[in-house]
Write a structure and sequence with these properties.
The strands form 14 sheets. This protein has a 6-stranded mixed sheet, with no helix packed on it. Strands 3, 4, 6, 7 and 8 form a 5-stranded antiparallel sheet that branches. Strands 11, 12, 14, 15 and 16 form a 5-stranded antiparallel sheet that branches. By secondary structure, the chain is mainly beta.
């Protein structure tokens, strides 16, 4: 009996020990899962770089113990760099974490291309290249003129030097696969015929004026130009044609050393056409100017404040009528509109133009004579030709807002007797002044009501004393209606000054 009891007690003890051990395993297992999850939150990263000798190297900055894998199989390498030699997908693993993957293809690339060059163009030719390489990841084109491209199928313009022969450009393509293996194509030749050079000197000055090559003599009388041929290809040029641009006969010859030609005051365009021994033809246009320094300024017919959308008339001063043809006038307003450009000769009507101002001058500033004028528009004026330029300015243009009425209320259109409703002016009618932009004047009115029907609790409605005299109201305006009925609340608004063309605006809302 005692033996049975001892056996039962032993069995119970062993059962309790087993349960406790199982619970410990369960808790340890939970802790292990949590710890593993925490370790996996840090990303593993590998990258690729190319070394000398077409060698690819994978690397990581990850510290600690990890394993490089190829196609999911351990390689036995745990260093921070790894040099693969066969195609596959590579990664590292650490504590159950997995890095990004890099796939390498060790199939050797090929480098080849075609192009559409004619090899017969003069001066320049735009050539499109078609890449016919295989197994490439990146490309380097070398065009033989110091220019390169990394596009897969580039377009390139070849420009020959001045001369009378055919210039050759050696083009080659280097292809690199994603395993850093490189191969370079055979060179292909692009040929472009050289153009003859056109260069002149003489008793004149030269510049670039209005974007054009210009030769000029500053004089108020007709002037003779001595034109010398200083072309770098003069000894091999085959023929010349000079088109004077003034209606006189062209100069045509197989040689050209020096020549004289008289031009009148004003501006003309001379064209020199030269043919080289290789049959290529080059031409160059030269603006030819004779005249003196220009004078003048910009005038305005009237001085007045205007309203947005208004228009003012401007004209070139009388002095400008003496300026030679070819003189350019540049007029720039500070209202962000494009520059106005006028070129002599001009008729009297062309010396006058209208300018519309679409927005208020509030917030714009213009400097004239060293004085900054706030809230105003103005224009700078430049008269220029190759001989010199003169400048001027016109300012004090104040453009005011065209009145726009509006107001809001703090309650619906249906209210009870003795209930207060507040109206707030939201309209605009800014008047531009050097001292600041004022908000304009406004007047409230309660239509269809006697003065006993409502009580003004705060503010005032204002008053129209006369067309030119307003006593402005206040905003907000709080009113209590003493009698049931339908009423219309109206606001009238205008600029601080009764400016011609601005007028006034009004709007009304019902309150019942």
């Amino acid at each position: 009996m005692n033996n049975k009891r001892l056996s039962l007690l032993l069995a119970i003890f062993l059962l309790l020990v087993g349960v406790a051990f199982a619970e410990k395993l369960r808790v340890d297992s939970k802790l292990a899962v949590v710890t593993k999850s925490i370790r996996n939150t840090r990303a593993l990263v590998i990258a690729k770089r190319c070394l000398t000798g077409n060698v690819v190297e994978l690397y990581t900055s990850e510290a600690g113990s990890y394993e490089w894998q190829k196609d999911g199989i351990n390689t036995g390498v745990s260093a921070d760099t790894f040099t693969p030699t066969v195609s596959g997908t590579y990664r590292i693993v650490k504590d159950g974490g997995i890095s990004n993957e890099i796939t390498l293809d060790f199939n050797v690339p090929t480098a080849s291309f075609t192009h559409n060059a004619t090899n017969n163009a003069c001066g320049t030719e735009m050539v499109t290249f078609a890449n016919t390489s295989t197994n490439g990841e990146s490309y380097l084109w070398e065009f033989g003129d110091g220019q390169t491209s990394t596009e897969q199928n580039p377009t390139h313009t070849f420009k020959a030097d001045f001369g009378n022969i055919t210039q050759e450009f050696k083009v080659k393509l280097t292809v690199t696969n994603n395993a850093c293996q490189r191969v370079t194509s055979n060179e292909q030749t692009i040929s472009v015929k050289q153009l003859p050079d056109i260069s002149i000197s003489g008793n004149f000055q030269s510049t670039v004026f209005d974007g054009k090559n210009t030769i000029y003599i500053c004089s108020d009388t007709d002037s003779e130009f001595e034109i010398d041929n200083v072309s770098t290809t003069k000894t091999t040029n085959a023929s010349y044609r000079i088109i004077w641009g003034d209606g006189t006969p062209h100069y045509v010859s197989n040689t050209f050393t020096s020549i004289k030609h008289t031009y009148p005051v004003g501006i003309k365009t001379m064209r020199i056409i030269t043919t080289g021994q290789n049959g290529c033809v080059n031409q160059e246009d030269f603006t030819v100017f004779v005249g003196q320094r220009p004078a003048g300024n910009l005038d305005r017919d009237q001085y007045t404040d205007i309203c947005s959308g208004g228009r003012l008339t401007f004209k070139l001063s009388e002095e400008t009528k003496k300026n030679p043809p070819g003189t350019i006038y540049r007029i720039k307003f500070n209202d962000n509109t494009p520059e106005i450009k006028l070129v002599e000769p001009l008729t009297d009507s062309q010396r006058t133009f209208d300018k519309t101002f679409d927005e208020s001058s509030c917030g714009f500033n213009f400097n004239i004579g060293g004085q900054n004028i706030n809230n105003s528009f103005g224009a700078t004026f430049i008269a220029e030709n190759p001989c010199n330029s003169s400048t001027g300015a016109i300012g004090n243009i104040f453009v005011n807002d065209k009145p726009k009425a509006g107001f809001s209320k703090n309650k619906s259109s249906i209210i009870c007797e003795e209930e207060t409703i507040t109206f707030t002016n939201t309209g605009t009618a800014k008047t531009a002044k050097p001292t600041g932009c004022t908000s304009g004047k406004f007047v409230w009115s309660i239509e269809s009501a006697n003065t006993s029907d409502y009580t003004i609790l705060s503010g005032s409605t204002g008053e129209v004393v006369s067309a030119n005299s307003w006593i402005t109201g206040t905003s907000p305006l709080s009113i209590k209606f003493n009698k049931a009925g339908k009423y219309k609340v109206k606001i009238r608004i205008r600029g601080e000054a009764n400016i011609v063309g601005c007028g006034e605006d009004s709007t009304r809302k019902k309150s019942a």
